[in-house]
Write a structure and sequence with these properties.
Elements (H helix, E strand, L loop, with lengths): L1 H9 L4 H11 L5 H11 L4 H7 L35 E4 H8 L5 E2 H13 L5 E6 L12 E2 L2 H8 L3 E4 L1 E4 L2 E4 L2 H12 L2 E3 L5 H6 L1 H10 E2 L2 E2 L4 E2 L12 H4 L41 H17 L1
Helix pairs in contact: 2-3, 5-6, 6-7
């Protein structure tokens, strides 16, 4: 048993399967019979199983870049997404009034925005709303779904900016200043349709930050929708805009405009699908190669 056990262990089979087969067939069983029984049981050598597993490496065309070998923040399916996604600071008043068509302070709009960013993997989200919005709604300032504010406050997502009453007059701190200042200190993204022109003139550093980190949005059929190109057609994509580090560009293979008439060979920067297995040599290199071959034949 020991000699046969060692023999089949070297082949990569498990000890439990080998012992089970030897007990069934007996000590005088031939090695071929033991091997057949192992195969019938479905036992596979470890080396075979490792070869059967699909390889994670993929062939990449020459000149292109592969994102599979990049750092963690290149991939959106990483579990710890907070490492590469920017913090989000939402102007709650702007979002709520936009969702309520500038007539009602709709708290449901804030919830839609928070859900959208949470689904993308953002873990650091802050919403700023004036404290007086906790009061009972009045006719001149209606509020819809006010209970959402309380729920977001319990989740440590919503923050109330201070306000108080002095001799019957409400004193409110500037809510926009909180939004811009916190987003600037956290190096995050401001979610608002406000341009904050007064704050841009107040601080030149805030001016650059607001121009580069302001994410505008729209509500389409009760759906929160930021643009795919937050900084314009020629700017970064939304994924890059919300990331701390830019993502690698996807490899784009543009076909060669000359097609089969191209004479650049392997020096051509474009794709040639018509010659995937050919050595892409230029015309000059092919002539040199043919000349060398002919001279060698003459010498022989």
């Amino acid at each position: 048993h020991k000699s046969k056990l060692d023999f089949f262990c070297k082949l990569g089979y498990g000890k439990q399967d080998i012992c089970k087969v030897l007990e069934n067939l007996g000590q005088e069983a031939l090695e071929d019979d033991v091997l057949k029984e192992l195969i019938r049981m479905g036992s596979k050598p470890q080396a075979v199983e490792s070869q059967a597993q699909p390889s994670s490496l993929k062939l990449v065309a020459r000149g292109s870049c592969s994102t599979t070998l990049g750092p963690k923040w290149f991939r959106e399916d990483e579990s710890d997404s907070s490492n590469y996604l920017r913090p989000i600071v939402i102007d709650g008043s702007n979002v709520a009034m936009s969702h309520g068509n500038k007539e009602v302070f709709s708290c449901g709009g804030i919830q839609l925005a928070v859900d959208w960013f949470q689904e993308r993997g953002h873990t650091h989200i802050k919403v700023f709303v004036p404290l007086w919005r906790k009061e009972a709604p009045r006719q001149d300032s209606p509020i819809a779904d006010q209970h959402i504010l309380e729920e977001l406050e319990k989740q440590s997502v919503l923050v109330y900016t201070p306000s108080r009453k002095v001799k019957g007059r409400r004193v409110v701190c500037y809510n926009d200043r909180y939004v811009v200042k916190v987003a600037y200190e956290m190096d995050g993204v401001i979610v608002s349709n406000d341009h904050y022109r007064d704050l841009q003139n107040e601080n030149p550093e805030w001016k650059w930050f607001i121009e580069q980190r302001l994410l505008m949005y729209s509500f389409v059929s009760n759906r929160f929708m930021p643009p795919d190109d937050p900084l314009g057609r020629h700017g970064p994509t939304l994924r890059t805009f919300l990331s701390k580090k830019p993502a690698l560009p996807e490899p784009k293979w543009q076909p060669c405009p000359y097609g089969k008439k191209c004479t650049y060979g392997n020096k051509c920067k474009f794709n040639h699908p018509e010659r995937p297995h050919q050595a892409q040599l230029s015309v000059a290199d092919e002539l040199r190669g043919n000349t060398t071959v002919s001279l060698s034949l003459v010498k022989e």
